[in-house]
Amino acid sequence: MSLADHHKILFEPVAIGPKILRNRFYNVPHGTAYGVLRPSTWASYRAVRAEGGWAAVSAEFSSVGPSSDEFPLHSSDIWDDEDGRRHKLMVDSVHRHGALAGIELHHGGAHAMRRVSREPAFSASGLAPELPPPAGPLGTPKVMTVDDIERIEQAFADAAVRARDVGYDIVEVLAGYGYLFAQFLSTFHNRRTDEYGGSLENRARFWLETLGRVRDAVGDDCAIATRLSIETQGPWGHSIDDSVALVRMADPLVDLWDLNVGSVLDWGSDISPSRVIPEGRNLELFARVRQATKKPVVGVSRWTSPDLMAQAVRSGVIDIVGSARQSIADPFFPQKVREGRIEDIRECMGINHCISSLDRGNMTCAQNATAGEEYRRGWHPERFEPLSRPDVSVLVVGAGPAGMEAAIGLAKRGADMVHLVDSVDQLGGHLGPVVRLPGLREWGRFIDHRMIQIDKLPNLQFIPSTRLSADDVRDYGASHVVVATGARWLGTGLTPGTHEPLQGVVEGASWVFTPDELLVRGKRPAEKSHVTVYDAEGGYMGTSIAQLLADEGYKVSVVTPHSQVAAEGDLTLEGPAVRASLHSSGVAMYREVSLTSARPEGVIGVGEFDQPFSLKSDALVLVTMRSPIDDLYQELTIDREALHEAGIEAVYCIGDALSPRPLAEAMFDGHRLAVPGHDIGSGEPG
């Protein structure tokens, strides 16, 4: 296969100042949770993106000094020469694959964490002569003096020189996301009366002076870029009209514009989940800014379709496709487009596991198990080392996320035969019904990608509508068995917080429902019922069920013991939009309430301070916790002698059947079984 004509525009080189991008794919700055604290992991992660064909690969935001210490967040400091040496490891790894290396210089201002440096935060100004500045994360920031401004400008220039000296090709000044320069641009933060406040030109002065210093410092050695958030939500940002004016002001100082939307206070506007925001929705805003510059423009908009990317470039609205999440999901996206292998692309699903996992210390992806594991485990997204014993025959029971991933990996490693068996007639396991929930259609990309790969592998066969007992498995003739039979939602109301079922709940009662009964078996409460959804899990399921039932005409209430409805959704950046949608649909929401009992007439519980809670309703949906369906695994492994007599060398349990977890972790479990380090050809039973 070859490059399609309508995609050729994406592979035209683009000049940015003194540098040339080999194509129009730009891996924009994004966090990894690694940075200078884990430099080898960081370098290997970035290198794979360069190998996959991205023309430029950027580091995450890099703070220029201790007053912008962001620990424990995922910043990459560039304060001194030691930091520089760690950056050089990443830069060299990117250059080895022919890509340009970019760095985003950053200062958080009032939002900086400063937990290690213990420096005071900086604020653009106080709200008025008699009022302090807006509060930062750990206290009231210090209003910046002109001397402070001078020192920070010099810190950016020094960091730029340090970046140039370790080999960075592109030096970007971050003026977005509500950080320091954006705070000066904002009339919410900036109430100064000196030359750095008042008019838009004055509020932009600090940023413009810094850009000028950075350009003077690195000369013609680097391309100079700036990231500008061109629109934000709420009072703390600036308008699209202001952005057009700002681009005109700064245009002589930059070689490249990197445009996004949103701020640290409405991050979901930029890193938008597919559940609430469609792909490419920023194009109209980019078109407004396009009129103000002839310099190359990088635009980010959760691009996943090469067709839409090419259309955006051909329209002239953007020159370069900026991407973070698609590069995580498939580092080899550009190469696959160039080779005409569109069907092999792992499209980002917009689930934002990559975002929620960052604050927990390790980036994960629901499409790509190898993300972040390139150095530690030696994993590669496209290369599969042959099995040490390719003569193995593998039976995978369960075609959900873990089972599909394991079966594909083992087949790609050359197993003689892999049979993927499921009791239903479709691939996907629990994910199949999930993608029919409101807003979750794009999650089906997980299944679509793996269905294509299964069809391509001659040594992998999917066998649908087949339920296997332990005797069936022993008689199957496989040398290795993988049990990936998933999990089920409990119908008792048992929660991790109480370790007790709800009093009065009888599993299977006509007024009690689980997600499995609603989505798989199609059961519903009586028409016009008032339904209580008890969401003790806090993930996507409870609020999705509530939205589904509300859309179907039920009166719905959500009760959760968490401090917020859709608690996990706040980490994946969809929480506010999900709550707004539920509110618009008439769904009542009760937070920090733990139910203690339920009956057909309603539910009873206690609030945060042990105050009584009761709610009348006709039906109860329990979204509390899942239990592994591991009966087959337990029955097989309890009789080792029978396994030996059947010629079964090993039995493995993976995914939700081992431990119910989010999609990214279940898929990861299947991949881990299939790849080197856990060589299935040499395993022991159990």
TrEMBL record:
Q: Where is the FAD/NAD(P)-binding domain?
A: 393-662
Question: What superkingdom heads the lineage?
Answer: Bacteria
The Swiss-Prot or TrEMBL record lists the needed cofactor(s) as:
FMN; [4Fe-4S] cluster
> Does the keyword Iron-sulfur belong to this entry?
yes
Its family? In the N-terminal section; belongs to the NADH:flavin oxidoreductase/NADH oxidase family.
For this protein, the record's SUPFAM superfamilies field holds: FAD/NAD(P)-binding domain, FMN-linked oxidoreductases, Nucleotide-binding domain
Q: Which UniProt keywords apply?
A: Flavoprotein, FMN, Iron, Iron-sulfur, Metal-binding, Oxidoreductase
Record has Transmembrane helix as a keyword: no
| A UniProt-annotated Pfam family | Pyr_redox_2
Example GO molecular function: oxidoreductase activity
NADH:flavin oxidoreductase/NADH oxidase N-terminal domain: residues covered: 10-341
| The protein's name in its UniProt record | FAD-binding protein
